[in-house]
Specification:
Distance between the termini: 47 Å
Number of strands: 23
Radius of gyration: 27 Å
Strand content: 5-15%
Number of domains: 4
Structural class: alpha/beta
Shape: globular
Oligomer: single chain
CATH architecture of the largest domain: Alpha-Beta Barrel
CATH class of the largest domain: Alpha Beta
Length: 716
């Protein structure tokens, strides 16, 4: 159906109701299908807004937006196609809205830029893994770039899903010819690359921008090819929205986000001081943890709400995958629902009531899980008793299609201060569990509870456990000796190929961190920690010093990391927003000297285009660098842009367009500006704009992203 923008958020200002648009589109599709057996698939596009924490739209609001479409159409269509999503979090909300409110088939495709990642930094592997985990029937790629550029992306997705893959590329890149937009790629070339995409692993093919009925007709030569079947990946993976992690021997799960025995963390949770949790998460990431356990179990707190909020806050600033830790199934589902990726659940066990509730959750969300070798009778005192429970868990999970490679079995270490036999029992359990072909874990710190010099005992027991089959310890990564012992063990046993990690840990020069905590707050985007950091630094430095010596260097470092793909758009925007707030606070304290004024910029999304994500990103980043921005919004007439020029006399004007259909409007706006404001530089960008197209249109500059716009403005 032709319903890409048919959702409540996008139709908010339309003169037609959502129901009118959906009914008309479905009826047109039925007329086109005629008496054939063609299925009617409802197309659902994104909201055009960024989700929290990058934007203002909440996950729950996005879910309700898509749910309203599904509720109205589930008895009128044969299935759904989610299309052209650029944010993994938003497509998660859309997938859940479809899966939870209908039983119809679901295709879901995302769009990638020339870097091979989505707008918010997700790789093809992460997209394939997450959509498969959520139960999508056909994941894939649409729009994006030219078809030849999608061949390696499809190959990468194919390695992470057994499902059929859908690919609908653009017909190359747009060019401007006599005032109209066209695509230079021939139908023959497009079909040639379509064949290559099928060879790479695509099962269903089509076309997006620039393709015509003649293109699709020529592609029909592929429709009788036999469909290949693909096996599921042999290994198990978890992920955040930007980091992929294979579950294997040698990983470390950070334990410090657990309030047990930690008074400061308990108080932070009671006070909803998530800045403290965020700093704890980052410290573990910097210390070398591969993923983090998150537990918020404290007395007199709503664990369901607290774990959900804590999950959102941690994934705001830390790109490590999470292990969601609770014995409350409601808390687990609330958190896993809003988790942007595929997590580990801590935990399940052999108790029938627990398995009855938790295994369906693992199945629904595709998560992995820590499996405790205990049941309703307690913790067995023998190795065989624990193995019996492990075998039962494996069998029950397998019956629901959950492979044992998604289960990490906890051999249950307990304090030897209460019984010294606990240590040998755990070690022998580890050895025996490995014979079942499963991954293993233990909560290392438990072994030393109640004894002096706990780090020594922990470290000694760690090496013993590793020797007997421990794969993934849950430990304190800030204990440097523990981490060094683990890296040495991995190097000595071949788990660290070519000893790369071991060598790297000893060859890195210590980073001299800036003493001002504000620098780290901006660098990491720690919004909740900004007030304390500002209070501290204002006692030490003058406002102008703070800008020149802290804020600008921090923003430059974030920009450098973004360009090197060490961080991605969400991190860039978070840092920019924190810096903007810092600038705003400083601006209330002093008037900046004339030579420090960055200047004023007018931004607009051109007439006919209602997509302003890119323009909004540029606005935040410009403001974070001290520029004043006049934002004219979206669907802006050329005359309104001219009025803004005459009113504000900006140092530059920035224009954005997402759709090929609005390129002529971009051209008209440029021509109008050149006639009246020839000396004012115009910078253009947007998904459909290329450097060559910008030149053809007569723009002064082309900015594919916000940081390029900053560089251009600095040169003016």
């Amino acid at each position: 159906t032709n319903t890409f923008s048919a959702n409540p958020i996008k139709l908010n200002s339309s003169r037609f109701s959502l129901q009118e648009v959906l009914d008309a589109a479905i009826e047109l599709a039925r007329q086109a299908a005629g008496a054939s057996s063609c299925k009617i698939m409802l197309n659902i596009g994104p909201t055009g807004k960024l989700l929290e924490p990058v934007g203002e739209l909440s996950f729950e609001e996005a879910y309700e937006n898509f749910k309203s479409v599904v509720d109205y159409t589930k008895d009128k269509v044969d299935g759904y196609v989610l299309e052209t999503f650029s944010d993994l979090y938003e497509i998660r909300a859309a997938v859940l809205a479809v899966k939870e409110n209908s039983a119809l088939p679901l295709m879901a495709t995302m769009t990638f830029d020339t870097s091979g990642r989505t707008l918010t930094g997700s790789s093809p592997e992460i997209v394939a893994l997450t959509l498969t985990a959520l139960g999508v029937d056909v994941p894939g790629i649409n729009c994006s770039t030219s078809p030849e550029h999608l061949i390696p992306l499809i190959k990468r997705m194919r390695a992470f899903t057994h499902l059929p893959l859908l690919v609908q590329p653009n017909k190359g890149f747009p060019v401007l010819c006599q005032g109209s937009v066209s695509y230079a790629m021939s139908d023959e070339d497009f079909v040639y690359y379509t064949g290559k995409l099928i060879d790479a692993g695509a099962s269903i093919v089509g076309g997006c921008c620039g393709t015509t009925p003649s293109t699709i007709t020529m592609m029909s030569r592929f429709k009788n090819l036999p469909l290949k079947e693909y096996a599921p990946p042999a290994d198990s993976y978890i992920c955040s929205s930007t980091q992929l992690l294979k579950l294997q021997q040698g990983l470390v799960c950070g334990e410090r986000l657990n309030p047990t025995g930690k008074k400061k963390l308990q108080q932070a949770l009671l006070n909803s001081d998530f800045g403290y949790l965020q700093q704890e998460a980052l410290s573990q990431q910097e210390a070398g943890a591969h993923f983090l356990d998150l537990n918020v179990g404290i007395p007199n707190a709503d664990e369901v709400d607290l774990l959900c909020r804590a999950t959102k806050k941690i994934q705001e600033i830390c790109d490590l995958p999470l292990q969601l830790d609770s014995s409350n199934p409601e808390a687990i589902e609330a958190a896993i629902r809003v988790y942007n990726g595929v997590p580990v659940i801590n935990s399940i066990n052999g108790s029938e009531p627990v398995l009855k509730v938790m295994l369906p959750l693992l199945s629904k969300y595709g998560a992995s899980a820590v499996a405790l070798t205990l049941d309703e009778k307690g913790i067995p005192e023998t190795v065989e008793g624990r193995l019996h429970i492990a075998r039962r868990i494996i069998a029950k999970a397998s019956a629901l299609g959950i492979n044992k490679n998604r289960l990490i079995f906890d051999a249950l270490v307990m304090a030897i201060s209460s019984d010294q036999s606990y240590g040998p029992l755990t070690l022998e359990t580890l050895r025996s569990l490995k014979k079942l072909g499963v991954l293993t874990t233990i909560g290392l710190s438990n072994v030393s509870f109640g004894l002096p010099n706990r780090p020594l005992l922990n470290r000694s027991f760690l090496l013993m456990a590793l020797t007997l089959g421990l794969d993934i310890p849950i430990l304190n990564p800030l204990d440097k000796e523990n981490m060094q012992s683990l890296k040495a063990f991995n190097a000595l046993t071949g788990a660290d190929p070519a000893c790369e990690n071991y060598i790297a840990s000893h060859s890195l020069n210590p980073v001299q961190e800036q003493s001002d905590s504000l620098y780290q707050v901006v660098l990491s985007g720690l919004k909740d920690s900004l007030p304390l950091a500002m209070d501290k630094i204002l006692k030490e430095k003058e406002p102008q010093q703070i800008i020149d010596e802290v804020l600008i260097p921090a923003l430059n470092e974030v920009g450098l990391r973004f360009e090197k793909k060490h961080v991605f758009l969400p991190q860039l925007i978070r840092s920019a927003e924190v810096a903007r707030q810092a600038f705003q606070q400083l601006g209330d304290l002093f008037v900046r000297s004339a030579d420090k004024t960055q200047g004023l910029v007018v931004l607009a999304t051109v007439k006919g285009d209602i997509h302003d994500i890119g323009k909004n990103i540029v606005k935040v980043v410009l403001e974070s660098h001290g520029y004043r921005v006049v934002d004219l919004g979206k669907n802006v007439d050329p005359e309104k842009v001219l009025d803004a020029y005459q009113t504000y006399h900006p140092m530059a004007i920035g224009l954005s367009a997402l759709m090929t259909t609005t390129v002529p409007s971009m051209t008209q706006t440029l021509e109008a500006l050149k006639a009246v404001a020839a000396k004012c530089p115009v910078i253009i960008g947007g998904a459909v704009i290329t450097e060559s197209l910008a030149r053809e249109m007569g723009a002064d500059y082309y900015a594919p992203d916000a940081l390029t716009a900053i560089r251009i403005l600095k040169e003016l």
